[in-house]
Every structure is written in structure tokens, then in C-alpha cells.
Amino acid sequence: MFEADKLDLVYKAKKGNGKAFTKLIEENIKSIYRVAKGILSSEDDIEDAIQNTILKAYSNIKTLRKEELFKTWLIKILINECNKIYNFNKKCISLDKVIEEQYNDKYENLDLKIAVDSLPEELRLVIVLFYFEDLKISEVSEIIGIPEGTVKSRLSRAKTKISESINGKEIM
């Protein structure tokens, strides 16, 4: 597009012409994507930064002083949005990461996880509640609604079956 046409689009966009603004964004979308991709790694974050940039640019286009600097102005907004997202992500811990760490902490040994998963439901439940949820025998008894002695015997049977499974014997 010729420079005069670009300036005309910017002028029209500043006057509130939405189609002119859309055309300007379409012309610059590859550039803003490449800049965002250079700052952010997650596709979701890149999309958020671009979306926020477009919204801010549309809301504030009347503040643009020199029409010929539209692309520079747009990229400056984008960089600020990318930096906000980048800094926010540095301060936050991903829920997926927390869940993964919890899962890995509880099941570091894959053989143990497989052995526990293959237990019958009544044994698996007491193992999970007692060992993985750190509940007392009395609490497990109350939750399941069985006597404490039964909880103890199920824990004992479950530990034996887990030991047999890990040492190469099959769980019934």
C-alpha cells in the first residue's frame, strides 16, 4: 500500500472509522505477531498480548500524534502488553505445574503408583487416605464407616500386596 493511502487510513481510523482501523491491523498483524513471539513463548500469551494491543490501540487511537508513526505506536503498545504478561507469568505458578509437582511428589515411584492403582477398591481407598492424604486411622475409619481394626487390617493387606507387586509378584 502506498504511504499516502496508509496515512489516509490512519486519519480515518482516528476519526472513528472501524473499517480503516481493521485494515491497518490486518496490514500489521504479521509484524505484531513476530514481535510478540520474540518476547513471549506461549501461543495463548501471544494471542492475549495481541488482543490487548488491538483493544488499547482502538481505544486510544485518537491520542496518536503523528499518523506516519502508527506502526511504531502499535508495536510500542504491543511491547508494553507483552512485558505485562511476561512479568505476570514470572510471578505466577501455573496450576498445571502445581498439580504435576503434587502428583510427582506423591507418586515418584511409578511402580508404586501402578501397584496402588491395581489394588481392589477397599484396599486402595485406605492406602490413599492414610498415606497420600495423611489421615489418621481414626479419621479413615470415620470417613469410610468401618472399625479402626478393619482399617488396620486393610492397610496391612494392602501393604503386603503392594510389596508383592513391586517385587515381581502379581496382585490378585
From TrEMBL:
- One MF annotation (Gene Ontology) recorded for this entry: sigma factor activity
Name of one Pfam family that matches? Sigma70_r2
Q: Does the keyword Repeat apply?
A: no
InterPro entries according to UniProt: RNA_pol_sigma-70-like, RNA_pol_sigma-70_dom, RNA_pol_sigma70_r2, RNA_pol_sigma70_r4_t2, RNA_pol_sigma_r2, RNA_pol_sigma_r3/r4-like, WH-like_DNA-bd_sf
Q: Which residues form the RNA polymerase sigma factor 70 region 4 type domain?
A: 115-162
Q: Which SUPFAM superfamilies match?
A: Sigma2 domain of RNA polymerase sigma factors, Sigma3 and sigma4 domains of RNA polymerase sigma factors
Question: Matching Gene3D superfamilies, A to Z?
Answer: 1.10.1740.10, Winged helix-like DNA-binding domain superfamily/Winged helix DNA-binding domain
For this entry, list what GO says about its biological process: DNA-templated transcription initiation
Keywords in alphabetical order: Sigma factor, Transcription, Transcription regulation
Specify whether Transcription regulation is a keyword of the entry.
yes
Q: Which residues form the RNA polymerase sigma-70 region domain?
A: 24-82
Similarity-based family: Belongs to the sigma-70 factor family. ECF subfamily.
Name the PANTHER family for this protein.
RNA POLYMERASE ECF-TYPE SIGMA FACTO, RNA POLYMERASE SIGMA FACTOR
What is the name of this protein? Sigma-70 family RNA polymerase sigma factor
Q: What is the lineage of its organism?
A: Bacteria, Bacillati, Bacillota, Clostridia, Eubacteriales
